Amino acid sequence: MAVAILSTSLAVTPNGRWFRMRRPSGHREQQHDVHGMRLALEEAQAALVAGEVPVGAVLMKHGELIARGRNRMKGLADPRRHAEVDCIDEAQDRGWRGANAFENCTLYVTVEPCAMCCGAIVLARIPRVVFGAWDEKAGMAGSLHDLLRHPRLNHKAEVIAGVLAEECGELISGFFEERRARP
Ligand code: ZN
């Protein structure tokens, strides 16, 4: 029983909501998550270079990269082209299709997913989501709501928040600060 209590921790989101999270089961899992987030950050940097809001995502299965994605809203003039959706699309293009295609996969994304992306994650039945920075304005994985772990939905993902949060957050806040400073 003591182990069960110690294996999860309760945190408060920047919006003041409770957020329960399983603690990484060991150093190896933590290393995997940092590695996955570094790859997602590479995608976010590529988005930045392309003039997009810098958010990146990758899908990993047993520590191996299966797809990458990044924001392409501006380039494709489509408000739905978020990094998570882009990443799921790439995986599907590579043949990861069907009801259980994403079994044992983890989606890494630099910023907390929005409602649309949480919906896509639930429908794709992705079992584990690791994100970097909180999104207090639009995040639906803990900030405004918790769609990935909604008790009434028939798919729930495990959610790990705050991996490389500072780097992920600075990238996006720097982008918006610079955009505001432009004449
Ligand atoms: Zn989204």
Q: Mind explaining what this structure looks like?
A:
- The structure is a single chain.
- The protein is an alpha/beta fold and 183 residues long.
- Helices cover 36% and strands 22% of the residues.
- It is built from 5 helices and 7 strands; from the N terminus they run αββαββαβαββα.
- Zinc ion (ZN) is lined by residues 82, 84, 113-114, 116-117.
- Zinc ion binds at residues 82, 84, 113-114, 116-117.
Brief write-up:
With 183 residues, the protein is of the alpha/beta class. Helix content is 36%, strand content 22%. It is built from five helices and seven strands.
List keywords for this structure.
183 residues, alpha/beta, five-stranded mixed sheet, two-stranded antiparallel ribbon, 5 helices, 7 strands, 36% helix, binds zinc ion
Question: Strands, helices and their partners?
Answer:
Elements lengths: L1 H5 L1 E5 L5 E5 L4 H23 L6 E6 L2 E7 L12 H11 L11 E7 L3 H9 L4 E6 L24 E4 L3 H17 L2
Parallel strand pairs: 5-6, 6-7
Antiparallel strand pairs: 1-2, 3-4, 3-5
Bound molecules: zinc ion.
% residues in beta strands? 15-25%
Sequence of strands across the biggest β-sheet: 4-3-5-6-7
**Which ligands, by name, code or SMILES, are bound?**
zinc ion
Helix content: 25-40%
Task: Estimate the global geometry from the Cα principal axes.
Answer: globular
| N/C terminus separation | 59 Å
Taking all Cα atoms into account, the compactness measure Rg is 16 Å
Low-confidence runs (pLDDT<50, min 5 residues)? 1-5
The total strand number stands at 7
User: Average pLDDT across residues?
Assistant: 93
